[in-house]
UniProtKB/TrEMBL annotation:
It is an enzyme of class 4 (lyase). Belongs to the alpha-acetolactate decarboxylase family. One of its GO terms (molecular function) is acetolactate decarboxylase activity. This is Alpha-acetolactate decarboxylase. PANTHER family: ALPHA-ACETOLACTATE DECARBOXYLASE.
Length: 236
């Protein structure tokens, strides 16, 4: 029986900041910990969204690809889906949706949100794959490709982390999107939900897995970085 109360996280957002972008877990291994998730590939190779056990990558050209088992990631979240209905929404912005969800749950634990419906004025991004020597997260993010749709049907998959975990994850919401036609998606920058069904899955356990076999990570000194400031700049 699968454990649906645990959120698995490989790596931290903090390690991306100085450019520790080696892929340190395979997709095959990540999928052992969940059939649903998000992440990014080695060298920030696109934006990943896993739905129903299928790992989709939105690359920097806007293509949606299904990645193979040997695809590697420096950072990812995954869990086994067991969503419960929360609410239905209409004509609600990203900020309004985030606020509404928090008002209906707790901001002191991890949870995932899945919203399926029609989205308008949605803007997403993906970053082209970089190679060693890697640039910093901020520098790499400058080369991001931005995509937009006036109207599209699809699934918003999001994770929420309490503010006390900011740095390990994104404190607050981290949104990814995939269209029903599998021709649009990525890390979400902004959107409006024209109409949608909101589902929630709350976790009581975070399983944090660190890349202890990666020498660059194990020997890196993070003390000279404004980790939180750099994360918020890159994620916005």
């Amino acid at each position: 029986m699968t454990n649906t109360n645990t959120l698995y996280q490989h790596g931290t957002l903090a390690l991306l900041v100085p450019g520790l972008l080696d892929g340190t877990i395979t997709m095959q291994d990540l999928l052992k910990h969940g059939d649903t998730g998000i992440g990014t590939g080695e060298g920030l190779d696109g934006e990943l969204i896993i739905l129903d056990g299928i790992p989709y990558q939105v690359d920097s050209d806007g293509n949606v690809n299904i990645v193979k088992d040997d695809f590697t990631l420096p950072f990812a979240n995954s869990h086994f889906a067991n969503y419960q209905s929360l609410t239905n929404v209409e004509n609600i912005s990203q900020k309004e949706l985030d606020k509404k969800i928090i008002s209906m749950t707790s901001s002191n634990t991890f949870f995932s949100i899945k919203v399926h419906g029609t989205f308008t004025n949605i803007k997403t991004r993906a970053v082209p794959k970089s190679h060693k020597p890697y640039a910093t997260l901020g520098k790499t993010a400058e080369d991001q490709s931005v995509f937009s749709k006036d109207s599209v049907e699809g699934t918003l998959l999001s994770y929420y982390a309490p503010q006390i975990f900011d740095g390990a994850a994104v404190g607050g919401f981290h949104h990814h999107f995939l269209s029903d036609k599998h021709d649009f998606g990525g890390h979400v920058l902004s959107f409006t939900v024209e109409s949608g069904k909101v589902e929630i899955q709350q976790f009581d356990t975070l399983e944090q897995h660190l890349p202890t076999k990666n020498t660059d990570y194990m020997n890196y000194d993070f003390s000279d970085w404004d980790i939180l400031g750099e994360i918020h700049k890159a994620e916005s």
